[in-house]
Amino acid sequence: MSAIQLLRELIKASEKAANIARVCRKDEHLFGLLIQEKPKDEANSRFEHDFKTLADCLIQETVKYDMEKLFPELRKNIRGEENPSFTNACGESVTISVSDDKNETTENLQKVLNGDKTAALRLIDEVYREIDLDDDKWQIPNESVSLDHEISELGIWIDPVDATAEYIQAKEKYSKFPNIMASGLKCVTVLIGVFETVQGNPIIGVVNQPFADEPEPNEFEGKVYWGLTIGDLKFNNIVSFETEDRIAVLSPTEQSKYVEFLKKQLKYDIVYSSGAGYKILKVCTGEAELFLLSRANTYKWDTCAPQAILRSLDGELFDLQDTLVNKSLKKISYRDTKVTRNTGGLIAYRNIEKFKDFLKL
C-alpha cells in the first residue's frame, strides 16, 4: 500500500475534523449545548475541572469511521482520547456513533442535542462532507512510497481536540514572541498519528490547526502540517522559521527547577504556552528550540502525530526522566498500546546535537 495514499486520507480526515471544530465553535447556541465535565477517572489530573465537548467525541468517531471504512484492517488499531458516551440535559447517556446510515447518525446526534434537529443536521453536513484535497496547498508529494509494514501492523492515535480548555474559553493571549501564542484558539490542534506496532515508532503525523488565522471576526482558516518517515525516506511540508532567539516552550505549570536551569545554565528565553501538540509543533517549525515537560500529564494521543513530524525533520521526542537518569536517549514509543500515559515527561528537540549539549549539562 502507498504511504502517500494513507497520508492523503489522514489529511482529509483532519480537515473534516477541523471543519466540525469550527462549526461547533462558531455557533453560540450549538456550542452551549456541547460542553460536559469528564468523570474523575477520565480527567487529566493537571486540571481541577477537565471538560470534553461533543466536538471531541464526534470528531474522534468521524475519523475512526472514515479510516475504518477505507482501511478495514485498521479497525482494531484505531484509538482516541475520548470515551464516546455523552450525557444530555435530560440525564440520558448516549454513545456517539457514526455509521453508513446517515439518518441513524442524525437521530443519534439529536438525542445528545435534546431533540435539536437543526443543530444535528448542521453537524451531519460536516460528518458526511467529501473533502477535496489541494495537493499544491498541502505539498503532498507525487512519489510512490510503499509502506514497510502491512496495514494490519499499523495503529492510529487520535486527539480530536488538543487543548480543549483553550477551545472552550477562547481567551487569546500572545507571548512576548508574536509567533507563539500563550493561550487561545490558535493553540488548538487536531492530532492524527500513525505508528508501526512492531517497533512502536510513529511514521506519519498530521497536525491540523483549525483556528490558525482569523481574516474576519469569527471566520477562521486552518493550517495543516504533516510529516512522514518510511525507512530512510523523509517527507514533510514544514517551512522552517529562521530565528536567532533561543526559545524553550513550556507549560505554565512547569517546575521551577527546570525553568531556572533553562534560563540560567542554557540561556533560553522561556515561553509558556498551552497544548502539548501546539508546543511540539513549534519545535517542528523551528519557532522554538526545545519543548520540555517534566510532569506525567500527556498521553500517546497527544504526542504520536507531532512526534512523527519531528522525526521527519531528524528531530525526536524523548522520555525526559529516563534520559536524564540513564543518558539513554529513550524515545517515546507506541509499541505497548495498553500504556497510554507518557509517565517520564517529555523533551523535544529538532536538532539532536543541541540536545546532546543539553545532556552534558
Automatic annotation (TrEMBL):
It comes from the Eukaryota. Pfam families: Inositol_P. InterPro entries: CysQ/Inositol_MonoPase (IPR050725), Inositol_monophosphatase-like (IPR000760), INPP1_dom_1 (IPR044897). Belongs to the inositol monophosphatase superfamily. PANTHER family: 3'(2'),5'-BISPHOSPHATE NUCLEOTIDASE 1, INOSITOL POLYPHOSPHATE 1-PHOSPHATASE. This is Bisphosphate 3'-nucleotidase bpnt1/inositol polyphosphate 1-phosphatase.
